[in-house]
Design brief:
Length: about 325
């Protein structure tokens, strides 16, 4: 198996976790299967860079003296707000030469400035998706997924999603067992699928200020198969149904029904991704009651049936 070189671009204001997260994944894979990855870092002039959190990183080399890498990884951070034209110029010239081009968080902005995302589907940190779409209309920006792979170019959302993308690359390069071993060592999930939303149901909604409503939010998450009618939830919050529905929407930004729908969909997706449970069992465990009800919910929200959704993450082995 040929060794894959990974070059990580460094610059002042880089987000340290955008660098260290993927680097730890590739280093872990190298420890698992020696001879598979060689990771190097480089900056424009080879001088130490200061991360957005104040850490100092010492590059291995200057970008000019690095050979063409198999994987070129561009992290994000505050330094992407006003991109250095020398850096985007280097990326414009050398990015297409890499076998695989990867960005983490707002590293996508650097790739965009270099013209490397035109005509492609891409993502970045949710807070910068509007800017990316506005400044670069030739890019199909999708703010929802935690990472997107479009040919040899992969872009990921905020910070820790770079770890998810790196694990996916290791699984592709080596195998699932290698990626699983690395994930276990790092104590992270293997692996959040790329089209998992940047926000879970709990993050998409605001946290209610009043304790009874916060307790109801938590109870919904822990009991997706329970009685989650407005009447039942209102009783748990010790409010009238009308008062509860109004207060819940005011404090969380969505209706109780919408919140329940998101929690149930997220629960079902995780079971489809991570278990071998049947669709009927998952539909009951997620509060849908019947496979048909879950199928309608999946088609409406995701444009795919539960069976089709599962096949995306567990494709049949090639013969």
């Amino acid at each position: 198996m040929p060794q894959r070189s990974v070059l990580v671009v460094l610059f002042d204001g880089v987000q340290s976790l955008d660098v260290s997260g993927p680097v730890e994944v590739f280093a872990g894979a190298e420890n698992h299967t020696p001879g598979t990855y060689r990771v190097r870092t480089a900056s424009l002039d080879g001088a130490p860079v200061r991360t957005s959190s104040g850490l100092t990183l010492l590059p291995d080399a200057t970008l000019a003296e690095t050979p063409r890498p198999h994987t070129l990884l561009v992290p994000g951070g505050q330094g992407t707000r006003t991109p250095d034209p020398r850096l985007t110029g280097w990326l414009r010239e050398h990015g297409p030469r890499a076998r695989r081009l990867v960005s983490v968080c707002t590293g996508a902005i650097l790739l965009a400035e270099a013209g490397l995302l035109d005509g492609r589907r891409a993502t970045t940190h949710w807070a910068y998706c509007d800017r990316l779409a506005r400044d670069h209309p030739a890019i199909d920006v999708d703010p929802a997924p935690i990472y997107i792979r479009d040919g040899q170019v992969s872009t990921s959302a905020g910070v820790t999603s770079g770890i998810d993308l790196a694990l996916a690359l290791v699984e592709e390069d080596l195998d699932r067992e290698a990626a699983l071993t690395v994930a276990r060592h790092l104590v992270v999930f293997l692996r959040r699928p790329g089209n998992q939303a940047q926000f879970s149901a709990q993050l998409a909604a605001q946290t209610a200020q009043r304790e009874p409503l916060r307790e109801v939010q938590q109870w919904i998450t822990e009991h997706p198969a329970g009685d989650l009618s407005v009447e039942s939830l209102a009783e748990r919050a010790r409010l009238s149904p009308r008062h509860f529905a109004r207060a819940f929407r005011t404090e969380t930004g969505m209706t109780p029904g919408r919140y329940v729908d998101r929690v149930r969909l997220e629960h079902a997706r995780r079971l489809l991704e991570d278990t071998g449970d049947g669709v009927e069992e998952i539909s009951r465990a997620s509060g849908y009651g019947t496979p048909e009800a879950m199928r309608r919910a999946f088609l409406k929200a995701l444009g795919a049936s539960p069976a089709e959704y599962r096949r995306r993450f567990h494709p049949a082995p090639a013969h």
